[in-house]
Amino acid sequence: xxxxxxxxxxxxxxxxxxxxxxxxxxxxxxxxxxxxxxxxxxxxxxxxxxxxxxxxxxxxxxxxxxxxxxxxxxxxxxxxxxxxxxxxxxxxxxxxxxxxxxxxxxxxxxxxxxxxxxxxxxxxxxxxxxxxxxxxxxxxxxxxxxxxxxxxxxxxxxxxxxxxxxxxxxxxxxxxxxxxxxxxxxxxxxxxxxxxxxxxxxxxxxxxxxxxxxxx
Length: 216
Fold this sequence. Notes:
By secondary structure, the chain is an alpha/beta fold. It contains ten helices and seven strands. The protein has one domain (about 5-15, about 75-215): Rossmann fold (3-Layer(aba) Sandwich), CATH 3.40.50. The termini are close together. The mean pLDDT is about 95.
């Protein structure tokens, strides 16, 4: 692979074994969050509104409980190996997520990954309140994403010959058809089948590492 390639990785359910946001809501929010999630997946509710409504269903959260949650989150068994290999080969890796940068950094710091570029929604937990900002929102985004992943693909295509995308879920539907090369699993894989989008199936980052793109 040439050094002018870049990996754009989703985070929740792609780098992590579970969707971090959904896991958090499952543990602490009223079950009504699932109805909001269904509307979001169907494209009826934009990300910003869905997240604010979902986190509004969490009551009496303490800092101790909040911090303890991150100790339960695990990442893909091979992501560290993948990231180290990319650095050795001088291949750029960035995380573009419709989740929260705070969550992402808290999880990755457990594994000593503190130098990766992250583009995501902003989040603060202050005195039981969830404060959210969406600095990468695009009003023209068809899915109403908090972080418009398509915008980042367009941006990186100006600087890199090959944009490789790795994803798994609904927030990856739009960028899937715009990347030069796509690794897909779970909901994203099923979406690609329906839309006839070319993809490579993967289950973990070990399969990404073993792909021919790393042999050039």
